[in-house]
Amino acid sequence: MLIIIGELLNSSRRPVEEAFLQKDEGYLVGLAAEQERAGCSYLDLNASTLLDRESEILTWIIPILQDRTSLPISIDSTSPAALEAGLRVHRGRALLNSLPGRQRELEEIIPLICDYRPQVIVSCLDDGGFPETPDQMVRLADKILNRLLSQTSLSKDDIFLDLLARPLAVRPEAGRLFLESLLLARKEFPGIKTLAGLSNISYGLPRRRVVNLTFLSNLIGHGLDAVIADPLHPDFQATVVVSEFLNNRPGARERFLTWARSGQKED
Q: What PROSITE patterns does its record include (predicted)?
């Protein structure tokens, strides 16, 4: 079954940024609860646009979200200080989003992983930028994964591998390259969960939601394990359920029949 990480608690969205600044816990908890009801397994939390207040906001909102929902938090930041602030107050195991292959961040973030032992999203990006081919992507992933597994007590099951979908508007072959990288990563790294940030693929395009959902169906067909996405889009659940059924994923037939009988109207 596809693991869904809800993306809506992100300060790049103006209402969320305002709720963070005003400490409007009612709005934020409501948005978290909607994503939980939509079937998410994690809540991604990003306050990076708040700059010097990022750590403060994470420290404030994480305990509130954990009191009011049952989901672990994906602490989404490029700042090691903010990551540590969030990890320090999180009860149980958080999901750290993310660990790239850049040398400085490896040196700063791996000690946090040793101290707090979160699950980890590994991002296939290093000091040289984005890998240009599936083979380069897998070689970089292998380098980061080997370092992470050798220097921490994490197991393969604790790790999500984000192959970093790039915008089609910038690179028209980005969708094909991601799918090829996904197949290769699944072959080379058994036991590691593959992940995609769904909205990246459509950045800069019109009709983004149609692009995202079509890409999602392709990803499921290629064996993707987890996705960071907006679970509240009215067609998101249908795309997941039907795509999993078409690809004969374990339990998908039963989930499809339950969904089909749940009052959904025929098209």
A: PTERIN_BINDING
Smallest Cα–Cα separation from 225: which of 41, 36, 70?
Answer: 41
For residues 207 and 209, what is the distance between their CA atoms, to the nearest angstrom?
Answer: 6
Q: What angle do CA 94, 98, 111 make, to 5 degrees?
A: 75
pLDDT tops 70 at residue 162 = yes
**Percent residues over pLDDT 70 in the chain:** 98
> Which overall architecture, per CATH, does domain 93-237 show?
Alpha-Beta Barrel (3.20)
Instruction: Please name the amino acid found at residue 150.
Output: S
Q: CA-CA distance, 75 to 179, in Å (whole number)?
A: 26
* CA–CA separation, 9 and 60 (whole Å): 14
Which parts of 65-117 are beta strand (E)? 73-76, 95-99
Q: According to the model, what pLDDT value does residue 222 have?
A: 98
User: Quick one: tokens of 113?
Assistant: 């992983």
In sequence order, what are the residues at sequence separation of 6 or more whose Cβ sits closer than 8 angstroms to the Cβ of residue 84?
A: 112, 116
The H-or-E segment that residue 46 falls in is strand 42-46
The continuous run of DSSP H or E covering 75 comes out as strand 73-76
**Three-state DSSP class for residue 207:** coil
Q: Show me where the domains of the chain are located.
A: 8-83, 93-237
Q: How many CB atoms lie within 10 A of CB 227?
A: 24
Rounded Cα distance between 13 and 146, Å, is 35
Tens digit of pLDDT for each residue in 98-130? 999 999 999 999 999 999 999 999 999 999 999
**All residues at 6 or more sequence positions from 253 whose CB lies less than 8 Å from its CB, including other chains:** 245
